[in-house]
Amino acid sequence: MLKLDRAAPASKGLLQCDDLGFIQDASVSKSFQGLLFALMLYAAATPAEVVRNLHSAQVPVIDQGRSALASASRDALAEVLVKVSGSEEVLQHPEIIAALPEARSHVQQYAYVRDEQTGDELSARFEFDDSFINRLLTNARLPLWTANRPRVLVWMAVEIDGVRQWVSFADTPGLAAELVSAFERRGVPVQLPLFDLADATTIGLGDIWELRGMAVQSASVRYNAENLLVGRAVLLSNGQWTGDWSYLYGNHRLDRSSQAPGAAGFMRDGVALAAEEMASRYAVAPTGITDDRVHLVVHGVVDFSDYTAIVKWLESLELIEHANIASISGDRVEFGLDAAADAAQLASIIQLNKRLQPQDALPGELVYQWTN
User: In the CATH hierarchy, which top-level class contains the domain 294-370?
Assistant: First the structure.
């Protein structure tokens, strides 16, 4: 099974380290390239995106000493566990608490990173063994959220010095960057509106400030995004950020007020709201690999490229180890899935691939139509 945890493209300011005995070339592995290529073949047909660097995290570090590095590795492991599970609650689990002090021994590779603008702020980027992460969560019966995740469209307005404005890379680039960074830390794809003429004719700044859900959903149709996050914030004279967030999904809405000493903290509150709600739908608590395979039937498989696309996507899911052919009859293919989840749990993940359209089936059966 291919994994999505290998090194990302090199970034400026990396200080290479080799005391762990790993090669610090920050190149994308062949296995990742192969999986990425396979996913690109059908990316346009699915609303989910493949999250890269799911098993890595970058955290501040006070110096390059061993003690500071060990402390930073614990912080990074905690961040990765939240990102992979989708929930901050996992950090309260006894098995997770016991594993954090051993974080350093599960680092595959790491590199120091200095702030490109100031050159002073130092952080360290860690990459962890994906099998260790998945095994740790699985043994604790904690949820795993596949790397295939829907994106979130964010509409946000801020009031600074009595002036209200959009959070966008054109108007408020610093805040927009903070927002994107907060989503990256939770492993959730994000999109900001274009703020072009089409947007201007369907939604106004006042709609966001009043958190008008219907107006937001109407303006979001063009973006084909099902998960929406709406935020409003005021920067107070004492530097405090205060405001509200609304997460919208279909007919569901969840509101939350937030206060934070800085913009980054306020953004994290909003992103956490979206991430936790999405994980409640898509993250699955593994049941462990059972003796009986999960059977999946797919109709409309007419050539080998269909078959390979289906298999590669299924096996890219963390909870599926192998997708084996059980039988073939015409354009009907039955797969036996070696999975750490049952049929009902897998169904919530498979729905992210819009090329697999669910068909009428008995409870516990997985039957789909493959579409081009």
Answer: alpha beta
